[in-house]
Write a structure and sequence with these properties.
Strands 2-1-3-4-5 form a five-stranded parallel β-sheet, sandwiched between helices. Helix content is 58%, strand content 13%. It has a single domain, classed as Glucose-6-phosphate isomerase like protein, domain 1 (Rossmann fold). The N and C termini lie far apart (47 Å). The protein is of the alpha/beta class. The longest helix has 38 residues. α2 runs parallel beside α7. α6 links the parallel β4 and β5.
Length: 194
């Protein structure tokens, strides 16, 4: 057990270091796009499956409530939280459309769509990004994988932050770290002097 703990820590730190080396500028670019979206009266629509769905909810909560600064709410919605909508779309159409239908209903050109997929291959996340692009929204993706391009999701999003790692748990650890950092950067940029 001691060895597993030690190796897990080293692998987690290495995943973060590799991500920062590869995506440092993209992380800052996404924070700037989020700031611009909020300042222009837009909202951030966040979505993913499983652990990425939990990340979407977590990130939306940090933006709407607060992260480190007591300030006014920022507009963010996790498309993963309404079970009636998710199950209606999944039942009436297909699970592949659970996010794209919501994007059609809620998305506006001034908004930003953030899709999260550890593989970069989640069909419902890809479809929602395609719909968002059709609306004229800015699109971004948090992905993972050793190929470096973030899979199909990474190839179609306007901006991709890819974790160059093959292990889902380490990709998810880096995603959460990046999501927290994005919240801090955006909050500081908009409200840092309040």
């Amino acid at each position: 057990m001691e060895q597993i703990v030690a190796e897990a820590l080293v692998n987690s730190v290495m995943a973060k270091e590799a991500f920062v080396k590869e995506s440092h500028q993209s992380l800052i670019d996404l924070a700037c796009q989020m700031v611009m979206c909020i300042r222009q009266g837009g909202k951030i629509l966040i979505f993913g499956n499983g652990g990425s769905a939990a990340d979407a909810q977590h990130m939306a909560a940090e933006l709407v409530s607060r992260f480190l600064i007591n300030r006014r709410p920022m507009a963010a919605i996790a498309l993963t939280t309404d079970t009636s909508i998710l199950t209606a779309i999944g039942n009436d159409y297909s699970f592949d459309e659970v996010f794209s239908k919501q994007m059609q209903a809620l998305g506006k050109p001034e908004d930003l769509a953030l899709g999260i997929s550890t593989s970069g291959g989640s069909a419902n996340v890809i479809k929602a990004i395609e719909v968002a692009k059709g609306i004229g929204m800015r699109t971004a993706a948090l992905t993972g994988g050793l190929a470096g391009d973030g899979g199909e999701l990474g190839r179609i999003a306007d901006l991709t932050l890819n974790v160059p790692n093959a292990k889902t748990q380490h990709i998810q650890e880096v995603h959460l770290w990046a999501e927290h950092l994005l919240c801090e950067l955006v909050e500081q940029e908009i409200f840092g002097e309040d």
